Amino acid sequence: MVYGTGGIAHAQDFPAALDAEATEIANLSAEAMRLYQAGKYAEATEIAKRSLAINEKVHGPDHPDVAATLNNVAVLHREQGRYAEAEPFYQRSLNIVEKALGPEHPVVGMALNNLAELYRVQGRYADAEPLFRRGLAIVEKAQGRDHPYVGTALNNLAPL
User: Fold this and answer.
1) I want to staple 119 with a disulfide (CB 3.0 to 4.6 A). Which of 29, 32, 38, 127 is the partner?
2) DSSP per-residue codes, 55-115
């Protein structure tokens, strides 16, 4: 919903026995996105959680595809104002991508921005600012100053 690692596009890499699960992940993710876009956040959350459970079963708990699904669940909780429920999903997603992709990967920058945005909407500016700054630095270094995401990150940081 906010970021992804291309996960479900790699279903062809799974052994044949996992094809059904890969297809189910793809279908559930598409349904969650459709519901999200329709503003049906509670329904989308339940679908995304089902996708998460299957994703963890297929990939294990520390895979970047799991991190992307965790992020999606967090976004859905945030959209419903369920900030305390969103936070652990964002944190776990961030921890996974930092470990799996490295601390300077652009996806880490986006994950930092997402967690910082959660803190910002709660008025937790002291928690948000360092995450926004670190995320901006990572994306700027990896993608260059002219990348559109750098502008988004700067806009997120500006009100603080």
Assistant:
1) 127
2) HHHHH-TT-HHHHHHHHHHHHHHHHTT-HHHHHHHHHHHHHHHHHHH-TT-HHHHHHHHHH
CA distance 99 to 132: 19
Whichever domain contains 38, its CATH number is 1.25.40.10
Number of residues assigned to the chain: 160
Q: What CATH number did the domain enclosing 116 receive?
A: 1.25.40
Same domain, 59 and 5: yes
Which tens digits make up the pLDDT trace of 23-57?
899 899 999 999 999 999 999 999 999 999 999 99
Q: At what angle do helices 64-79 and 41-59 cross, to 10 degrees?
A: 160
Q: What is the pLDDT of residue 4?
A: 39
Buried-exposed string 99-110: b where 16+ CB fall within 10 A, e elsewhere = ebbeeebbbbbb
Domain with 72, as residue range(s), is 1-101
C-alpha to C-alpha distance for 125 and 18, rounded to whole angstroms: 43
Give the pLDDT score at 151: 77
**What is the pTM (predicted TM-score) of this model?**
0.84
